[in-house]
Specification:
About 35% of the residues are buried. The protein is globular. Helix 1 links the parallel strand 1 (about 5-10) and strand 2 (about 30-35). About 40% of the residues lie in helices and about 10% in strands. It folds into 2 domains: about 5-130, 3-Layer(aba) Sandwich (Rossmann fold); about 165-269, no CATH class. With about 270 residues, the protein is α/β, with parallel strands linked by helices. The protein has helices at about 15-30, 45-55, 65-70, 70-85, 100-105, 120-130, 160-170, 180-185, 190-195, 230-245, 250-255, 260-269, and strands spanning about 5-10, 30-35, 60-65, 90, 110-115, 210-215, 220, 230. Bound molecules: zinc ion. Zinc ion binds near residues 207, 222 and 227.
């Protein structure tokens, strides 16, 4: 596989201190990760970036806690991960009991419990992370420190923008950035389901990462390699033209497009 393997980290901003310790563990093991909001390029679509990041991750790690369970974003990210058939690892940092919404998603998923003062939970987590280490660092992964240990140093926080921090604190989780339409809609009370039902448009060229120019309905041409990129609806249409009629489930599997988007496309026809 040419794609770098990475872990998607789903979390509540209220747990950022503990989350940073887990990030520190991943970094010590040279395991790549994706975590909002710092991995989202300025000006790009928040929903798009999150969905792409989840769909391409090798492992979905949810930092589970009371805080995470009151975050609609964490819930939606889990929903997206499961509908993309991702391996989901809940890492329970505060021994919280699953609320109904999370029971619904995580009932059949093995949970890891952080065990303060004992390496047991961290060792289990490391077991899931090891297959994602680049070959040359696999041997060094066994000696990493236990990141949840209280004496462990916390990495210096990245210079926070006080304005953004103030805005963030009004929201449910850290996974939002301001000046972003999704967040604005969220604040207006938009149903978050709608977010996943959008006809997702490509942000950058999937072949080379170049910028895109919209040329026709659902078609975008890369300014670098000139390849055509398509939005989801156009991708569905192209597939049907090429392969003939097929079920929504087949489409979803063949194209890696969530069922919700395919059903939304059917409705639009
Ligand atoms: Zn390109």
């Amino acid at each position: 596989m040419s794609f770098p393997k990475y872990v998607f980290i789903s979390y509540s901003s209220k747990d950022i201190v503990k989350v940073n310790k887990i990030v520190e563990l991943l970094e010590s093991m040279n395991v790549e990760y994706w975590k909002a909001p710092e991995k989202i390029p300025a000006g790009s679509s928040y929903a798009n970036e999150i969905v792409n990041a989840i769909e391409n991750c090798s492992l979905f790690l949810v930092i589970l806690s009371e805080n995470a369970q009151s975050s609609i974003w964490v819930e939606k990210e889990i929903d997206c991960a499961l509908s993309s058939a991702k391996e989901v690892i809940p890492y329970n940092i505060d021994n919280c009991v699953l609320v109904n919404a999370f029971k619904f998603y995580l009932n059949n998923v093995q949970m890891i419990h952080d065990t303060p003062g004992s390496p047991e939970g961290i060792d289990k987590l490391k077991g899931f992370l090891r297959p994602l280490q680049p070959a040359e660092s696999k041997s060094s992964g066994t000696n990493v420190n236990i990141p949840m240990a209280p004496e462990q140093k916390i990495p210096a926080p990245k210079a926070p923008d006080p304005k953004a921090a103030a805005k963030k604190s009004n929201l449910k989780t850290a996974t939002q950035i301001d000046s972003n339409t999704v967040v604005k809609r969220y604040q207006r009370g938009m149903r978050m389901d709608d977010m996943w039902n959008l006809n997702r448009v490509p942000v950058v060229c999937k072949h080379c990462g170049g910028s895109l120019t919209h040329v026709a309905g659902g078609v975008y041409v890369c300014n670098e390699c000139k390849a055509e990129n398509y939005d989801d609806f156009r991708t569905i249409r192209n597939y049907l033209i090429e392969h003939g009629p097929c079920s929504a489930l087949e489409l979803s599997k063949a194209l890696g497009i969530p069922m919700k988007i395919i059903k939304n496309w059917q409705k639009s026809q």
